[in-house]
Design a protein that fits this description.
The chain is an alpha/beta fold. The protein has two domains: 218 residues, 3-Layer(aba) Sandwich (Rossmann fold); 200 residues, no CATH class. The chain is built from 22 helices and nine strands. It has a five-stranded parallel sheet, sandwiched between helices. Strands 6-7 form a two-stranded parallel sheet. About 9% of the residues have low confidence.
Amino acid sequence: MCDLQPQAEPIWQGDLLNRKDIAEYLTNYLIERYQTNLATEQGFVLAINAEWGFGKTFLMKNWVCELQQSNYAAVYFDAWQNDFTSEPLVAFIAEIDESLKPVFKNIPAAKKLLRDTVSKAKQLWKPAGKAAVEILLKRGIGVTVQEAQNLLEQHSVENSRGDNKVGEEILTALTKAYESTLEDHLNKKRAISAFREKLSQLIRALESSKKIQLPIFFFVDELDRCRPNYAIELLEGIKHLFGVSGVYFVIGVNLNQLGETTKAIYGAGFDGSRYLKRFFDLEYSLPPPNDGPSYAESLFNSSTLREQNIFITRLPKEFYGDKQLASQLFAMYSEFFGLGLRDQQHVIRHIEASVAAITTPRAHAHYLFFLVMLNYKFPESFEAIFERSIDQNNVKPLDQQNFTAEVSKFLRKPVFIRRKRNGGTFSLEDVAWFYLKTARRDLKDLFKDEANEDDFPPNLIIDLRTEMPSHSVHGKFNTSSIAGYPKLVRQAGYFK
């Protein structure tokens, strides 16, 4: 059973973006490629290129589980979760060892060769290069490389003045250190060759046993979220160590983002995208999801937002069907503001940051979504509206007429959410205005208003009343939590 999915949850459950079809297509392609190029192709690396929110991790985790159920050896490695180590290959080899041990337990030859392969890998992690020089110098004469170089330069100047005193001790130590580094380099080359040979033997043992289908699949995810050095070192290791027939890699990455991070290593003018292509045999870009409720639901599932204890919508269940209320509402407001997929990705993060600062048990989704999207898409309108609603001492107070005039600048088309009792309709604009005019009212006054639970949006008053502490009903002036939403949205908007 795949440990990437809860045991009670079937593979591909919740596949809102139709990633199962892509996994099946790519599986067929890769297996056909392996069978066709078995004698000539020394491994294969496929990059799954996708932006955040396109379902890349969902695809890869479920794909691994499906391959395992089809009797393939498939390993999933989350690079970002292992970003804390200074040796990327150490964590990766450890994951291979842990994941494949139970798979090979009934194949004695493969079990032994896996152990031998991991043992060969350990020979790769000895101090090398400058690190080895530093260690030898410290042990030998108690100085660092830089200190040794400074001393040599000083002695060189003295020697040019006729002083025959030369740092023979330093020169001897440096010579030994660099000889050791050269030997270490040769040992590493031999260790890589031995590792690849053991890996090839492992593939041949699996082929002979006929108990596991080939190729072996290694999935590496979240590479673009790692430190630049870590990501590049892991890719370099994959290229040099695993170029063996029967070993296929699938790397999940946002190539544009990773290409930008490589500039932190090689400089601002470095062509990161071109550089990365040397690590991949082929690139597959995930198609963008279809816009609408399914994509909104996928964004919510990938976020920190939890609908059951956060959002108040006050819309009838039959309006949404069986879908998540908050994600459906998010899709409606996205349509209202004409947000594209990338816009929605930015907005969902803004909403996360806003909700994290709300102290009441639940947030008012209608008002919050309206404010966040207005601030994101039309910041000038946001300021024009809320400088009146927040700072009423200096400007003309906000009324429905100037609110409607401001909204009409960006409103593409009305989005109606339900009918009134008198046959009319409430639009999202109506709801936003209702929140605006109610936000700064004294909560005590709300108890005097009549509200019908079947009527929307006035029934939102009932929800606002629940924020009124019982001891304050006859006390001093109190506003509801939504009074602070505009300021909160402004603050959360500073996150980029």
